Amino acid sequence: MEPDQFNIRHLAAMAAVVDQGSVSLAARAVNLTQPAVTQGIAKLEAQLGVKLFDRQPGGMAALEAAQRLKPRIDVALRLIGSNRVTAAQVRAFVALARAGSYAAAAAATGVAEPSLHRAVGDLGLAVGSRLVDRRGRGVMLTKPGMALAQRLRLALAELRQGLADLADLKGEEGGRILVGAMPLSRARLLPDAIMRFRADFPQVDISVAEGAHAELVGPLRDGEIDMMIGALRDPAMALDLEQRALFEDRPTILARHGHPLTAGWDADALRRFPWILPPEGTPLRQLWKAMFAELGGDMPAVPIECGSVMTIRQLLVSGDYLTLLSYDQLALELDAGLLADIGPAPGAISRTIGLTTRADWRPTRLQRQFMTAVEASVGEMTS
Hints:
Blueprint: H1 8-20, H2 23-30, H3 34-48, E1 53-56, E2 59-62, H4 64-80, H5 87-99, H6 102-109, H7 113-127, E3 132-135, E4 138-141, H8 143-169, E5 176-181, H9 183-187, H10 189-200, E6 205-210, H11 213-221, E7 227-231, E8 241-249, E9 252-256, H12 267-272, E10 275-277, H13 283-295, E11 304-305, H14 309-318, E12 322-325, H15 331-335, E13 339-344, E14 351-358, H16 365-382
Parallel strand pairs: 5-6, 5-7, 10-11, 10-12
Antiparallel strand pairs: 1-2, 3-4, 7-14, 8-14, 9-12, 9-13
Helix pairs in contact: 1-2, 1-3, 1-4, 2-3, 4-8, 5-6, 5-7, 5-8, 10-16
């Protein structure tokens, strides 16, 4: 079952029954009839394949499945913001926000464009805001629309985790871990952690989204990935995120095999050759600046800005460029003799590598197990 298949009113009814302890009180709380609440609970139990309540003469006693699911539902309902919103409206608007046009959203979902138009229009009425503006053949989300799209994505992420909690309760191993991988983590740390985790949980899928911090932090905030692994940022710039340090990485200066500086170098020699570096504002670029500030003198030329390790590798092999990277990121090329390690960056030059999650994120058991696998891989790398 997908999280966008839930009937939102049924979720609200279930949460109310847990709170009130009876169908009659819950029906008044969510403005539904008692038969509607009873029917909604029965449909939820059928969808989920678990019993949620013990029907007793004095009321409804929440079973463990309901107790596990209830906190996730509370968060999802708060993010959705209205019991008038339907699952069809959520699916339509999230698809539109992702695709950028009704035509693309229709192609992605298999829902006809008129139905998507109607669902998004009805959603706007339900929440009392204009959600989209037309821009040629596409659409642009209004400010309220952007805020709602983020809340709905987070709501779906919370319900997805609720489904994982129930699967765990039923003894079912499955689901998917969604990981954002920044450049350094892709070479050794993340592959090792994935293999370590899958050895214990072979039925759990891993989905890796590659990108720079700027490309991954939005999906992380929207709940579309569970965690990011890579260089940490200034905590003051991300108060809504939680950063957990794993290890300190000390970059090294790399060049092609046979580069003139393989025989030795000094600060002036480092300035004579062009550099390939990631864009301004990235931790590695800041470390490079700190390195030359400590060495003194002018900054060398940086004719190529690039964050792709594959592209940097080919450029290094083809010319007399220098770069600053971690050894692990190009270990295969270094071991094969295509590239040379000129030497560690002079000075106290290091960056903190770690895990980044949402500050309010409550991981499932399997997500915690994956983070444990990451930490175990770090221990092996640094021992």
